[in-house]
Amino acid sequence: MAFKNEDDAKAYWKENLSLMLKLLVVWFVVSYGFGILLVDVLNEIRFFGFKLGFWFAQQGSIITFIVLIFLYVRGMAKLDNKYEVHED
Amino acid sequence: MDIQTLTFIIVGLTFALYIGIAIWSRAGSTNDFYVAGGGVHPIANGMATAADWMSAATYISMAGIIAFAGYDGSVYLMGWTGGYVLLAMCLAPYLRKFGKFTVPDFIGDRYYSQTARTIAVLCAILVSFTYIAGQMRGVGVVFSRFLEVDIATGVIIGMVIVFFYTVLGGMKGITYTQVAQYCVLMFAYIVPAVFLSLLMTGHILPQTGFGGTVADGSGQFLLERLDGLSTQLGFAEYTEGVRSKVDVFFITAALMVGTAGLPHVIVRFFTVPKVRDARRSAFWALAFIAVVYLTAPTIAAFGKMNMINTVNGPDLQGVEYDNAPSWIKNWEKTGLISWEDKNDDGRMFYSGDERNEMTIDRDIMVLANPEIGDLPAWVVALVAAGGVAAALSTSAGLLLVISTSVSHDLLKRNLMPNITDKQELMYARLAAAVAILISGYFGVYPPGFVAQVVAFAFGLAASSFFPAIILGIFNKRMNSTGAIAGMIVGIVFTFSYIVFFKFISPELNTPDHWLFGISPEGIGTLGMIFNFVVAFIVHKMTGDAPKDIQDLVESIRYPKGAGEAQDH
Asked: Which residue intervals define the domain Sodium symporter small subunit in the entry (chain A) (predicted)?
């Protein structure tokens, strides 16, 4: 066991899952929400030369995905350090 | 210099580069052959994953599909990038910590079952084969178009090249070759987009030009113009779709989850030294992929508009065939464009209704785009080199999965446990050779459904691997019976649905007959849901996984102590 005690192991996993779920909610809302389910509503809004829903489907969602993974990588590195389960 | 000579020179140079790298980094051991000794930097690995990922289908046909489908084409953009979010957060770090070579290895060990391993091997081989069958055709099309040879010769040339560096190089050779290929591919994809954006909107960035105004002083937005043109010509509005919301939702999900379940993509994350690097590799992979995916819809819009303008003329009256631009004449030779003068006025006309006189294959969009936009010859040649890079890199990655599945998972772990490393490597190379021959055969004699089988591969991966791996990591009590039952139900359901609508009763393949309005392209999502449900129910009936397996699952949930990828 790499953790100091059982509680640490549980807390680490819980924090990990909560970070993951938060980011996945954004992932879902931006792609399936803005890009698909709400696309007609958002298309009423103009964003430069784009209809906003269309922009999310073809540009915005992809940009968001990159940001999400970036935040995940950073968040997990912090978490690993906090519980001292990082690699040397 | 003419286009043909330039193409020879540029394609030739890039080729020399790939082969040089393959020879320079020859695999010395089985470990090298499979996972590049675990010593690949996350940025290099990210580029290689990106090259692996962007197949001939992505490079050559994605922008074309979007150009013709407009908003509906977004399923590919979101589907083939969003999967990396799942991969980075739910799979890659844990599989890296687990430290095995292949997906079947994980499934076999996690579910402590030879049966589970064998089913996973068979799924991996099925998924990879359906995927590669289309790739060899793509390789052949690119070669035959630009070397001006017939398609059979094109495929054979491609087979020889792919064989050469997969078999000699193994994973390490492939990784560095793919880094080079990514660079060629990305450059070749972006240059024409920048040119077109400058010409049409005055923006240097295609992504802002896409939302900019047309550079003719009218002040009209490009997309507005395109929407207007589309409606005038009897097409659906470019920025609106025709597919139902349910179907768009399910197709996007199938592509996303399928991406996260494709064995040749997952295996990439075994090739980095640390768990943290696996996470970072996923980030870099998506960043590099996004460069191309953010450009594809701009190429689609610019290309569509240019195409309409050069065929129908600025006044939308049609251009006289005798004055047709050279790209139309060039592509007519390939049979991918044809003109039928229905109203005998000697003018071409392209539209979405009965006035239409043009048959235009959507796959030519990217390759023909520089010619349509009248860009310099070297750009046309560069695009050809990019197509070659895309086609070769994916084939090589897939072949590696097939050869490891056969030699490592099937022979070493199942049928012939006593073979030495050397023999295993020999069998891996032999399997690659056989796989190339078989896929080459499908390249020369395509079974007529190559385009469909690529979407097929995603649905199959989504409905088989993804739930088994997710449950294996996030539900430590999940047992082997549950996982096996789930995989079988998922893949059999998806396979049957696709086969039924695509091959048995294609005449019924309309939204009215689909289950819940889900097309065969999106059915993998439903198969995945069935897989999860069945696994849960069977698990409830058969009890938890043994204690040592639960401890094993606990241990892959944190990075500390991750060693090199291990054989056993």
From this structure: 9-86
3-state secondary structure of A51: strand
Q: At residue A84, what is the residue type?
A: E
Cross-chain residue pair A69–B85, CB shorter than 8 Å: yes
Q: What would the two tokens of residue B327 be? A: 């790209």
Q: Give the 3-state secondary structure of residue B472.
A: helix
For residue A36, the model assigns a pLDDT of 92
Gap from A76 CA to chain B (nearest CA, Å): 8
User: Hey, is B101 helix, strand or coil?
Assistant: coil
DSSP B483-515: HHHHHHHHHHHHHHHHHIIIII-GGG-STTTSG
Q: What's the pTM?
A: 0.88
* Model-level ipTM above the cut of 0.90: yes
User: Nearest CA to B279 among B474, B46, B88, B562?
Assistant: B88
- Residue A13 burial by Cβ neighbours in a 10 Å radius (0-12, 13-18, 19+): middle
* CA within 13 Å, CB half, A63: 9
Subunit contact B210:A9, Cβ cutoff 8 A: no
Q: Measured between CB atoms, which of A13, A57, A68 is closest to B78?
A: A57
CATH superfamily membership of B3-311+371-555: Sodium/glucose cotransporter (1.20.1730.10)
Give residue limits of the domains in chain B: 3-311+371-555, 312-370
CB pairs under 8 A between A and B: 136
Give A 8-47 residues with CB within 8 A of chain B. 9, 12-13, 16, 20, 23-24, 27, 31-32, 35-37, 39, 43, 47
Whether B219 and chain A come into contact, CB under 8 Å, resolves to no
> Cβ contact (<8 Å) for B71 and A59?
no
Q: How far is the C-alpha of B120 from the C-alpha of B104, rounded, in Å?
A: 5
Task: With a cut of 50, list the residues of chain B below it in pLDDT.
Answer: 37, 448-449, 567-568
